[in-house]
What we know:
Layout lengths: L1 H18 L24 H19 L24 H22 L1 H27 L9 H16 L2 H25 L14
Amino acid sequence: xxxxxxxxxxxxxxxxxxxxxxxxxxxxxxxxxxxxxxxxxxxxxxxxxxxxxxxxxxxxxxxxxxxxxxxxxxxxxxxxxxxxxxxxxxxxxxxxxxxxxxxxxxxxxxxxxxxxxxxxxxxxxxxxxxxxxxxxxxxxxxxxxxxxxxxxxxxxxxxxxxxxxxxxxxxxxxxxxxxxxxxxxxxxxxxxxxxxxxxxxx
Length: 202
């Protein structure tokens, strides 16, 4: 009887060793220096500093006469509409424009300079982590096209086509979409499920 139990236990151990661990979703840390997964959610303190900055920006905008010839961020801007591999590039462009506009706002307004100090440092850190992840990805791949190409082109030409007031308003009203929806989507990788495709509207 003892010999029979030993045979059963050996069989179970060998079976578990062959089976190995159950695979989980792909990690969001994909290379040296790449740790975008840590930004699945920001701390309450970080979110509070961004809320304070947004409130100050909105108050500043009330004193300015601004308008946009066309929306800086397309009306259907939603990273879930993109392929997983396309999302980091879209988020990088979104972050880069946001940083550029908010840094300019801080340079021209001493009150905003103080309240934007910590949020700007946080955004710069997020962007550096994201760029490390992008650099760690294979370079070979299809060129951007379709929706992503249209979105990137819109963000690239916005500083030349729109006024500083329009740009400041656009990134202010987009700030929490960037932090809560877009950043979280990229940080979650494959777990951020793609939505059904919508028409290529602007």
